[in-house]
Write a structure and sequence with these properties.
mainly alpha; two-stranded antiparallel sheet; 43% helix
């Protein structure tokens, strides 16, 4: 039986030395982060050799925080944040001013949130409202104003003039709120009649002419317009049809084609015919004269 080969003594006598390798440059975390960043036309990517040439003494030690480099652009911002941290308001309104200026106090009544709409448009919107659905009434009013804005200029009737000082017809569609206001003010009655029960004899009421204030005049005029619209047949279905019919009646009022003008004339005739009742002593006792 041949003897067993034992190579252990032979290996002890051999001197094996590994070939020295070139030491790879040590890449720091900051250099790696810069090497992974995207570059554009103005910046170049950092190469692996350039990353190895970073001086480790220029990097902060572990746990050390160095202040950011100071430049004149961010010094003012840092000072501002420091004052805010101390609870000091660094803005001087009188010195620096505001972009849109400060409002004058006390605020006027039209600046209130409840009075942000035009008073006539707001009042007529409430008259359009049914069952407390103000949102639907506002949507109908928006459709009415949009119809007036997109309609052609009206053709005025000299026999039925509008309120004095109105703009030319070609300018009315440019301002639908003014268009709507002129139509309401033109057909609003100036005077109305107040009925005193059982003063005319035989159980009849005595009518006395009385002047109407602005809100009542507009309410009567718009109710006449709504009554005329309700009596006309609808041209189709949809929630926009009622608003379009009201807008068409507004245009008819401005052009003098609406029957609301006749109602206004009848109301003025009734008030004129009852002027003699103002001389009655019982009417004078109520303080009407």
């Amino acid at each position: 039986m041949p003897p067993r080969l034992n190579l252990a003594p032979v290996c002890r006598s051999l001197a094996i030395r590994a070939k020295p390798l070139n030491q790879l440059p040590q890449i720091t975390v900051a250099a790696r982060a810069q090497a992974r960043c995207f570059s554009d036309q103005n910046t170049d990517r950092i190469s692996r050799q350039q990353a190895g040439q970073v001086d480790p003494r220029s990097l902060p030690a572990f746990g050390e925080t160095r202040p950011p480099p100071q430049n004149p652009e961010n010094e003012e911002a840092l000072n501002y944040l420091q004052l805010v941290a101390y609870g000091v308001t660094p803005v001087n309104a009188a010195k620096e001013g505001h972009k849109f200026g400060l409002p004058e106090l006390p605020l006027p009544s039209e600046k209130h949130i409840k009075h942000r709409y035009d008073p006539i448009v707001d009042q007529m919107t409430r008259l359009l409202m049914k069952d407390g659905k103000l949102g639907k009434a506002q949507r109908d009013m928006a459709m009415i104003l949009n119809y007036l804005r997109t309609s052609p200029p009206p053709r005025l009737n000299p026999a039925r003039p509008l309120v004095p000082g109105h703009p030319p017809p070609s300018h009315l569609p440019l301002n639908p709120v003014q268009y709507f206001t002129i139509a309401i003010e033109s057909v609003a009655p100036l005077v109305g009649t107040f009925r005193f029960a059982k003063l005319a004899g035989g159980g009849k009421a005595m009518e006395v002419p009385v002047p109407l204030h602005a809100r009542k005049r507009r309410r009567i005029a718009f109710n006449w317009i709504l009554d005329t619209v309700k009596n006309k047949p609808s041209k189709g279905s949809g929630r926009a049809m009622f608003a379009h019919r009201v807008a068409e009646e507004i245009v008819a009022v401005v052009e003098g084609r609406s029957g609301v003008w006749d109602k206004r004339q009848v109301a003025h005739k009734q008030a004129t015919a009852s002027r003699a009742n103002l001389n009655d002593r019982r009417i004078k006792a109520f303080g009407f004269v």
